[in-house]
């Protein structure tokens, strides 16, 4: 059939036939037809070329797209704006933004649609600064934004977390009187919801005369994400009971994501009830979202029961449940589920290994964790990433195998070692391993010299080991860098106030217990003395006025007074 059309001169009809076959699972058919047209010297019209290039972009067929581009250059075909825009869009969708920009800059008669494609392409590629620059170019070129431009600008504002841009666009919408456009209103609603401006979002929602599912979903999600639980629940009930609208899968998944972030079990059960009544529990996307939601809402038993009831589990289902077990300390259950997953023929991916290694770490299963880590490459061809290394480093650190943990840290790129080294330094303090702790602390200070927590940990490690001079040096360096941890001070009225140790607004001596300032005679000859506090914290400064204040780092006045008296 395709060959027959290639020999005809109805190029558009031929392409339509090929496109139908492409939608039926034969994506290369359209491009085969194009090649046949070339052989027969049949010149596709602009609509055919635009559709071909659009298909290349949608399917990420960069090679085919470049082939069409090369053909156009060879034949010196002059593309119209539609086909040119499709060519630029194809390069952006195939992650070739530089090539797309080169083509854009060569066009003299750039229209609003082409600018929109550029801005949208940059946003999808994560280049928000370039997207904003393109918007400025469009305005400087005297192009009037259309509704599509407005939607892109609102999305840009939300992505950049730039309220100023959003307000300016909102003002433009009001001036132009286009706020009644439901798509624009929905995007405004979503943007203000992300900014936490719930009252403005609700005002926009109330002004929408013909609300669609997107309107309801955006408003409910905004309420849920900002802990307006009762309002979210009330609006959800209004949606399904009075408006008689049936939330689709996207709406329900979005709502469940918001609920899981909030950790609200009541709202989770309300949404689950609607899903059950409408017989949507068989949808695997819904099931996986429910598993995640119940796990994050603290109802691990419900999540487990739901998981067991699923007949056809997906990879995401297994990963979610393994992660949930590990999160709640059910490490044996996580391991059992991992091996059951392998037995049923599922191949673990990088997310699976992150979850199971984390579970092994929290459960202290060192040998099992090492075996699983080793099997990643040897049996499952999964290359360990930073998260996997961090899990195993944490596994060794928690079990006191600090040398092994430090050895693994060396496999990480320098800038990715910081979190692992930070955890390892804490473990060195727990296990009182001064040798490894000193090495780790020095490396941390080189990689992240402005992290106040590192100075605190290292200083306390030295103090506990009786190395007062080293502890003093660490604290002096931190002081010279104006680094200080935030801590809570107890005032005379019993209220807590956040302040930095040694800062000008630090609590005055008169608001604190007088015994704390009894004098330096408790120190003996050392300027520092280790003071044990709840949670294993140590405060080691008491000889100077500023140093004595460090005793209040945790606000534990009663215990400090007791120590000083004794």
UniProtKB/TrEMBL annotation:
**Molecular function terms from GO:** mRNA binding
Which Gene3D superfamilies does UniProt cross-reference here? Answer: Tetratricopeptide repeat domain (1.25.40.10)
UniProt entry tagged with the keyword Glycosyltransferase: no
Per-repeat ranges for PPR: 111-145, 212-247, 314-348, 349-383
Keywords, A to Z, come to: Repeat
Q: Give an example GO biological process.
A: RNA modification
Q: Name one Pfam family in it.
A: E_motif
Q: Which PANTHER family match?
A: PENTATRICOPEPTIDE REPEAT-CONTAINING PROTEIN
What is the name listed in the Swiss-Prot or TrEMBL entry for this protein?
Answer: Pentacotripeptide-repeat region of PRORP domain-containing protein
Record the organism.
Papaver somniferum
